[in-house]
Amino acid sequence: MTETKLPIDLLKQKFAAAKKRKVEENIYDIDPISDDEDGPATVVPEKIKTHRLCPYLDTINRQVLDFDFEKLCSVSLSRINVYACLVCGKYFQGRGTNTHAYTHSVAESHHVFLNLLTLKFYCLPDNYEIVDSSLDDIKYVLNPTFTSEHIRQLDNSDKLSRAIDGTLYLPGIVGLNNIKANDYCNVILQALSHVTPLRDYFLREINYARVKRPPGDSSFLLVQRFGELMRKLWNPRNFKAHVSPHEMLQAVVLWSRKKFQFTEQGDPVDFLSWFLNALHLALNGTKKPDSSIIYKSFLGCMRITSRKIPPVELDDVQRAALQRTDEYAEQVTTSPFLYLTCDLPPPPLFKDEIMENIIPQVNLYQLLTKFNNESEKEYKTYKENFLKRFEITQLPPYLILYIKRFTKNTFFVEKNPTIVNFPVKNVDFGDILTPEVKKRHKNTIYDLVANIVHDGEPSKGTYRVHVLHKGTGKWYEMQDLHVTDILPQMITLTEAYVQIYELRNNTENNR
């Protein structure tokens, strides 16, 4: 009995010794993932200890920390196991002996690192975890979190925050960096960040963390990046008074298959339409009005009546005969919409008697008569012409208006400079509804919350946005990194391009 047991016991002892020796040899050769990553828990090597005190904490330079860019190793460009050096702000992979972070710490004498995934701090090359409450502000900048109570107070608070350099800023009113030509994206992202239900939904990551997507589906990256951007824009403890949308735009380029770039100027309306539909689909939205936060906020419905116009060369008898056929009869369809397209009247071709160009103006209500089910508009196709009438049957909580300023012809794109006169408050969209439809709406009064403006030539112009900060009741103009307050009377003098209106009873306090 003892003779058979002895060899087995010896083998067990040898195996245990070899295993222990292997762990001790390799402890600094690789980056141990088990103790700080999401991998399966294994035996924690004894040499990695947690220290609560670190002599290098005073070397941290918060002014160089920028977590807005892609979490890539600056040497290997790998996204796996990336650490930020809190002394110089650069990203490096791993923390074992042969890794870039380890090499950097030895070469530059930079010792404090943050794992960008697990939010844990380490001291290199000693390789121990740092636990210190003084580092919580860094952790919060990397991953801002909001409680339900905090979110409820956002629209009532006028409290200013202070950045590291002493700059005062209002959470939610911070500039977005223009990498090259992404101002058309910036204005849409800024405007959407002031749509209250959309903002509140994306500030709590738990709201969309449980959304299940097929394996390998990259569209959900768009949702995650938009949520991160919302939390950074409304972060009351930012280190700087602006945010770079770099990661958000990378997701846009990837998922739009390079239709939208940040190196080429684009159209905010095209981006808005694509972005809202992409978010809706990524959140598993369907055709049902309440299937996603996008449809709950912006989806309205209209009835379109169209009839084919007979050819002009026909006489009255032939035209009348054609109109009695099914092909030329009126067709009624129901269509959902996320925004309404308003057509500007053509600008005058000639100068006035004083030989000066008059800046043409039009009232917003005049543009909205397109949707009163009475005005007919002719639409031309390659072969046929149609007359269409539009009737809004359901108004959304947030109504987006697209004022069509650009027309393309064979040779170039032409811009209509007509100024639209609109009130900032108390816009009654009930005036364009039929009496039957108006009865179904308890309230039809809207207030403006965002106004996007185009300046300059059609191809070379720039975009800026006006947003209402509800906590202060003030309007702010944002053009990339530039943020200034503006009087409401000045907003109405601009060449408005996209507007977002909020239903009055959708707000908690009627302003």
Automatic annotation (TrEMBL):
<dbReference type="InterPro" id="IPR013083">
    <property type="entry name" value="Znf_RING/FYVE/PHD"/>
</dbReference>
<dbReference type="GO" id="GO:0051301">
    <property type="term" value="P:cell division"/>
</dbReference>
<dbReference type="InterPro" id="IPR038765">
    <property type="entry name" value="Papain-like_cys_pep_sf"/>
</dbReference>
<dbReference type="InterPro" id="IPR050185">
    <property type="entry name" value="Ub_carboxyl-term_hydrolase"/>
</dbReference>
<comment type="similarity">
    <text>Belongs to the peptidase C19 family.</text>
</comment>
<keyword id="KW-1017">Isopeptide bond</keyword>
<keyword id="KW-0862">Zinc</keyword>
<keyword id="KW-0378">Hydrolase</keyword>
<dbReference type="GO" id="GO:0000245">
    <property type="term" value="P:spliceosomal complex assembly"/>
</dbReference>
<protein>
    <recommendedName>
        <fullName>Ubiquitin carboxyl-terminal hydrolase 39</fullName>
        <ecNumber>3.4.19.12</ecNumber>
    </recommendedName>
</protein>
<feature type="domain" description="UBP-type">
    <location>
        <begin position="52"/>
        <end position="149"/>
    </location>
</feature>
<dbReference type="InterPro" id="IPR028889">
    <property type="entry name" value="USP"/>
</dbReference>
<keyword id="KW-0479">Metal-binding</keyword>
<keyword id="KW-0507">mRNA processing</keyword>
<dbReference type="Pfam" id="PF02148">
    <property type="entry name" value="zf-UBP"/>
</dbReference>
<keyword id="KW-0832">Ubl conjugation</keyword>
<keyword id="KW-0747">Spliceosome</keyword>
<dbReference type="InterPro" id="IPR033809">
    <property type="entry name" value="USP39"/>
</dbReference>
<keyword id="KW-0132">Cell division</keyword>
<keyword id="KW-0539">Nucleus</keyword>
<keyword id="KW-0863">Zinc-finger</keyword>
<keyword id="KW-0597">Phosphoprotein</keyword>
<dbReference type="GO" id="GO:0005681">
    <property type="term" value="C:spliceosomal complex"/>
</dbReference>
<dbReference type="Pfam" id="PF00443">
    <property type="entry name" value="UCH"/>
</dbReference>
<feature type="domain" description="USP">
    <location>
        <begin position="174"/>
        <end position="504"/>
    </location>
</feature>
<comment type="subunit">
    <text>The U4/U6-U5 tri-snRNP complex is a building block of the precatalytic spliceosome (spliceosome B complex). Component of the U4/U6-U5 tri-snRNP complex composed of the U4, U6 and U5 snRNAs and at least PRPF3, PRPF4, PRPF6, PRPF8, PRPF31, SNRNP200, TXNL4A, SNRNP40, SNRPB, SNRPD1, SNRPD2, SNRPD3, SNRPE, SNRPF, SNRPG, DDX23, CD2BP2, PPIH, SNU13, EFTUD2, SART1 and USP39, plus LSM2, LSM3, LSM4, LSM5, LSM6, LSM7 and LSM8.</text>
</comment>
<dbReference type="InterPro" id="IPR001607">
    <property type="entry name" value="Znf_UBP"/>
</dbReference>
<keyword id="KW-0508">mRNA splicing</keyword>
<keyword id="KW-0131">Cell cycle</keyword>
<dbReference type="GO" id="GO:0016579">
    <property type="term" value="P:protein deubiquitination"/>
</dbReference>
<dbReference type="InterPro" id="IPR001394">
    <property type="entry name" value="Peptidase_C19_UCH"/>
</dbReference>
<dbReference type="GO" id="GO:0008270">
    <property type="term" value="F:zinc ion binding"/>
</dbReference>
<keyword id="KW-0833">Ubl conjugation pathway</keyword>
<dbReference type="GO" id="GO:0004843">
    <property type="term" value="F:cysteine-type deubiquitinase activity"/>
</dbReference>
